[in-house]
Design goal:
115 residues, two-stranded antiparallel ribbon, two-stranded antiparallel sheet
């Protein structure tokens, strides 16, 4: 390998390693700062998109709330498949207002309905 080829290889390795180091530092800084952008939605053949079962993370658009999606794909706690005989179950259908990703689940209107 001649001198020019060796110099090009060294400079290329410096650029690649410098870029990798910068990305690693940026990743560390974002984790320390608590930044997250959770993927709460997945594609759906029928309706276009829906909540991704098991997803969780901080939603900071139009408010701040930790969002956890149940294994059934609902923004709620886990529910047993069978309903106890002394309980009522309600289904709430709606748009993004009913989904309420901007507030903690305890502050949603549907969480306050049983009260």
């Amino acid at each position: 390998m001649n001198w020019l080829g060796r110099e090009l290889l060294i400079r290329s390795l410096l650029v690649v390693s410098g870029t990798a180091l910068a990305l690693a530092l940026a990743e560390g800084a974002l984790r320390v700062a608590g930044f997250s952008f959770p993927a709460l939605y997945t594609t759906d053949e029928v309706v276009g998109s829906r909540l991704r079962p098991g997803a969780s993370g901080w939603n900071r658009s139009e408010g701040e709330a930790y969002v956890r999606i149940s294994s059934q794909g609902l923004r709620d706690r886990e529910h047993a498949p069978g309903k106890p005989p002394d309980r009522y179950r309600m289904a709430v259908l709606g748009d993004s207002y009913a989904e309420a990703l901007q507030v903690p689940v305890e502050q949603t209107f549907w969480a306050k309905l049983p009260q």
